[in-house]
Design goal:
mainly alpha; 77% helix; TetR-like_HI_0893_C; DNA-binding; DNA binding; HTH_TetR
Length: 190
């Protein structure tokens, strides 16, 4: 069997970290469990990560960055209404393609695993999304309410639907996604 490249090994480790954390919880995740699941030597983990905390944090930031990039693709839309719609549906596309990664983000947020510096990185990502919503308020597309409330109205139902889909291993129908978006849109549109 040919040797894996460093990137292939890193990918195996990432998948194992995600699976272990989802199955066992962040606090019960162990390097030994990741090693066993990834079918690598213990030393291999330490080529990529300094320790368990570093492993959990780096995988979290990697996935968070991918998720954020997916959401930021909506910025290319010509108007705010299309931008918000695309952001919503792109989020569901990410969940559909990477359900375990989505759950890892959800659980990681609750576990508060990041250092203050890493938390700052995620706050910058949140600020970029807030700027997109602020643009919609400014141009009259979105209701003139605070951005945190707009974000909550948009994201909370989406996260709940996505979480349900992931945990039940049943995709959300396009019709349901569309219906929920339309109902939310009525609440947030100007």
């Amino acid at each position: 069997m040919p040797r894996l490249t460093k990137d292939q090994t890193r990918s195996k480790l990432r998948n194992a970290v995600v699976a272990e954390a989802i199955e066992r919880g962040f606090s019960a995740t162990s390097v030994a469990g990741v090693v066993k699941r990834a079918k690598v030597s213990a030393g291999t983990v330490y080529v990529h990560f300094a320790n368990k905390d570093d492993m959990l944090q780096k995988v979290f930031l990697e996935i968070k960055t991918e998720f954020h990039a997916t959401m930021m693709g909506a910025k290319a839309e010509a108007n705010s209404a299309d931008m918000i719609r695309r952001m919503w549906f792109d989020m569901f596309a990410f969940v559909g393609k990477q359900p375990s990664d989505f759950l890892y983000l959800e659980y990681g947020n609750s576990a508060r695993i990041l250092t203050p510096a890493q938390e700052e990185q995620t706050l910058k990502m949140t600020a970029e999304i807030s700027e997109m919503l602020q643009q919609g308020i400014k141009d009259g597309t979105l209701a003139d309410i605070d951005v945190e409330t707009l974000s909550l109205l948009l994201v909370a139902p989406a996260m709940q639907l996505a979480r349900r889909a992931v945990l039940s291993n049943q995709p959300i129908s396009t019709a349901t996604t569309e219906l929920v978006f339309q109902r939310i849109w009525r609440a947030i549109a100007a």
